Structure formats: C-alpha cells, structure tokens
Amino acid sequence: FMTSQNHGFAVDANTLPGDWEPLFTNANDFSNEGIIHKTKPYFSVQFHPEHAAGPEDLELLFDLFLEAVKEHSLGPVCVRERLIEKLAYTPKAGSIPSTQPKKVLILGSGGLSIGQAGEFDYSGSQAIKALREEKIQTILINPNIATVQTSKGLADKVYFLPLTKEYVEQVIKAERPNGALLTFGGQTALNCGVELEKAGVFSKYNVKILGTPITSIIET
After folding, report:
1. Phi, psi of 32 (to 5 degrees)
2. Where is the Glutamine amidotransferase domain positioned along the sequence (predicted)?
3. pLDDT values of the chain reduced to their tens digit, one per residue, 220 residues
4. What CATH number does residue 137 fall under?
C-alpha cells in the first residue's frame, strides 16, 4: 500500500512482546511502520501527515478502530483481516491495458523555467529505459538538447519540437503510438497533454494514456 503520509519510525519489531506483531513494514528500508495486538483491538502506525493534516488516504484507520472497539464486546474482532480487506486494491475496468503497447509517446522535460523542478529529466530517462527493457518502442518529444532524455541511443526516436498541441498532434499522426506518458515533462507537458485530451486528439488516433489518468491530471 502506498500513502502520501510522512514516514517516521521508532519501533524495533524484533523486540515486540508475544501478543504483538508488525502491521506495516516499509518496503524501502524494511523498518517498522505499525504494530497490532493479536487479540485486542489495538494498533498503531508510524506515519503521519506532518504539520498539515491534509492527506486523507488513511482516514479509514480511525473508522476501523472505532468499529473494532464497538464490536469487541460482542466477540473477537480480527482487525488485521479487516484492514487488509479495506486496503485491497481492485483496478477499475479499463485502467490496465489488455495488451501491451508496442510504441509509446513520451512528452519530455523541455526547457525549464525558474521555479520548475528539474527531476523530470531524470525520471523521464528512467521511464525510457524501463520501456526499452520491455521491448516497447519509445518516441520522445523534447525541444531541449541539453537533457539526459535526448542522449543518443536512449529513445528510439527523438523529435526536437516544442511541446504544443499542434506539433505533438503531427508527431502522433506520423508515428501512431499505442500509448502516451504525460508525467515526465513537468508542468509544460501536463498542460500540453490536457490540451490534447480536450481537443480529442488522443481519442482520434486511439492513443491510450498510460500511468496517471488524464482525469487526475485535469483535477489537480
């Protein structure tokens, strides 16, 4: 399970009493992120939303705790099983492509403005490498020659064109990619992707948006 909460840890899972066990374990450093009592409705987590209680993705933990406390007097409650059931992820219909794309268009990082993050160049180059490992042809649009993404031999084909609706549509028309990645080019690429979606370009050429759904990009 992935959460937007901040990571913090202080519990050594190897020192837990016999009636306690780990509930969450960090997948990166394998540190303990939460513990749970084996029979009583007690559990804790080691992540929190910092100074601003904005993220609500794990608000269900409070609901689950209150339910367990209310029902505990009626009989044993398996909080762990309920938690797994609540956090289980069922992909929405159509969210996962039924067939692997053969050619993917990537909107690159382009020229960066002051205040715009530059990590998209790195993440985009890693995305290209990952696609190549899966034997997927990569088409990159990036007008900035001074990027890692545009290095010779990385993408299968690079177009040094501005990230505008008109130019990107021309590339889509010529290359006919099966899918497109919009989240590796910063705000410029996101804005371009939203504009293409609203203009009906992706549906016109049957291009599937991969990764973050276009609806989420528009909403945020």
Report:
1. -75, 135
2. 2-67
3. 666 566 666 788 889 999 999 988 888 788 888 888 888 888 888 776 555 555 566 778 888 888 888 877 777 778 888 888 888 877 777 666 678 899 999 998 766 555 555 667 778 888 999 999 999 999 999 988 878 788 888 999 999 999 999 999 999 999 999 999 998 888 888 999 999 999 999 999 999 999 888 888 887 7
4. 3.40.50.20
Residue 94 lies in a domain: no
The DSSP secondary-structure symbol of 14 reads: G
User: Would you say 170 and 192 are in contact if contact means Cβ atoms under 8 Å apart?
Assistant: no
Please tell me whether residues 82 and 107 are part of one structural domain: no
Residues 175 and 111 in one domain: yes
The number of distinct structural domains making up the chain is 2
Find the angle CA(170)-CA(219)-CA(214) to the nearest 5 degrees.
Answer: 35
The pair phi, psi for residue 159, each rounded to 5°, is -110, 115
10/79 same-domain check: yes
The strand ranges marked E within 110-198 are 137-141, 157-159, 179-181
